[in-house]
Amino acid sequence: MGPDHISELFAAFGTVMVRRMFGGAGIFAGETMFALVHDGVIYLKADGDNAAAFAREELAPFAYTTRGGKRVVMSYRRMPDRLYDDPDELAAWAGEALAAARRGGPRKRPPAGKARKAKAVTVGLD
């Protein structure tokens, strides 16, 4: 799933930027990451205000295992499959995910000299 396809999916929501990161990509509205893509699956940001919608549909959180063997579960939940074919409903879910990301506040920045610049993805993620 490449950046052009992701942009088309979210067209009813608005302009998004896709940035390669952590073996997948982050999906941003402005400077706010509200979704991620990993192994061709989109995950949307969840918090206490929108988590019930994901729970009702039994949508799994995004999780990964660190090199040290620790399992990390993030606050992103799998996007319902039907949203890939329903741009209006996807826009509504994306709006809720963006609101959740904004409620989470800004992320801590790495110490000076340790910052890494994100690059916009212009090639496929596959």
Quick take:
The chain is 24% helix and 29% strand. It is of the alpha+beta class.
Features:
126 residues; alpha+beta; Yope Regulator, Chain: A; six-stranded antiparallel beta sheet; disordered C terminus
Distance between the ends: 6 Å
**Gyration radius, in Å:** 14 Å
CATH superfamily descriptor:
YgaC/TfoX-N like chaperone
Given as residue ranges, the uncertain stretches (5+ residues, pLDDT < 50) are 114-126
The CATH topology assignment is Yope Regulator, Chain: A
Largest sheet: 6 strands, antiparallel
Any overview of this molecule?
By secondary structure, the protein is of the alpha+beta class. It is built from three helices and six strands; from the N terminus they run αββββαββα. Strands 1-2-3-4-6-5 form a six-stranded antiparallel sheet. A hairpin with a 5-residue loop joins β5 and β6 (71-78).
Describe the protein's topology:
Elements: H1 3-9, E1 17-21, E2 24-29, E3 32-38, E4 41-45, H2 51-56, E5 61-65, E6 71-78, H3 87-103
Antiparallel strand pairs: 1-2, 2-3, 3-4, 4-6, 5-6
